[in-house]
Amino acid sequence: MSTNTAESNIARGARLLIVGPPGAGKGTQAKRIGATFGIPDVSTGDIFRFHITHETELGLRVKAIVAAGDYVPDSLTNEIVASRLDEADAANGFLLDGYPRTLEQVHYLDALLEKKGQPLEAVIRLVADQEELIARLTKRAHEQGRADDTEEAIRHRQEVYLRETAPLVELYRERGLLIDVDGLGGVDEVGDRISAALQAAGIGSADSATLAS
Ligand code: ADP
């Protein structure tokens, strides 16, 4: 046993991506994985929403784009991720959630991580049926009132994902980094599947699968 008891059930850092269509539960699972590995969950969607809520200069620039379900320009998104990954808490790793979403973002991230000498270790893809996802998001719209959770914006985000982002997954598959996880089921059930898959890939410590909440 480690004398560092507070750290004993925390897996080592890791450099991960999580991808999946809007509504697949990425955000929820990303928070769990971040806690398990002791790494920041870097969600570009959360960063944009923070800026929009606080009416920063960036927030005002991206507000209409995000509300419509379109993608924020790559140059802006790339810059935000680069500066976030420069923060001290990302030194041991990170989980990127919602980035990269375009080929240009993939290339930018490749170059950035190469420069840092911190290659990705795995890309977790949550797989789920599209109609189920639309139903989930519509429910979330009623519960949370996110501005981009109107049915029209939800359908548009699914289309943009299928057109722009789904093809990128193939790139990561070719690199041998892709881990597919069934995203249908309860939060704990899906979380356990992710932990087991990461462990099977040799990422994380032996007890990471049993970490709950
Ligand atoms: P969801 O996956 O449920 O659509 P996110 O929180 O990941 O939600 O993203 C919300 C919105 O933020 C996107 O629809 C888009 O407008 C913007 N956004 C987030 N990440 C990116 C990105 N990597 N590139 C461009 N725009 C992004």
Structural class: alpha/beta
Radius of gyration: 17 Å
What is the strand arrangement across the widest sheet?
2-3-1-4-5
Identify the CATH architecture of the domain at 3-43 and 88-191: 3-Layer(aba) Sandwich
Query: Could you give the distance between the termini?
Result: 23 Å
The CATH superfamily of the domain at 3-43 and 88-191 bears the name P-loop containing nucleotide triphosphate hydrolases
The biggest sheet, with number of strands, parallel, antiparallel or mixed sense and barrel status, is:
5 strands, parallel
Task: Give a short synopsis of this structure.
The protein is an alpha/beta fold and 213 residues long. Helices cover 53% and strands 11% of the residues.
Reconstruct the topology from this structure.
Elements: E1 15-19, H1 26-37, E2 41-43, H2 44-53, H3 57-68, H4 74-85, E3 94-97, H5 103-116, E4 122-127, H6 130-144, H7 151-174, E5 178-182, H8 187-200
Parallel strand pairs: 1-3, 1-4, 2-3, 4-5
Adenosine-5'-diphosphate (ADP) binds at residues 22, 44-45, 48, 65-66, 69-72, 77, 98-99, 101, 105, 148, 157.
Organism: Microterricola viridarii
Region (NMP): 43-72
Protein name: Adenylate kinase
Could you list some keywords that capture this structure?
single chain, 213 residues, alpha/beta, Rossmann fold, five-stranded parallel beta sheet, 11% strand, disordered N terminus, disordered C terminus, binds adenosine-5'-diphosphate, AMP kinase activity, Adenylat/UMP-CMP_kin, Adenylate kinase
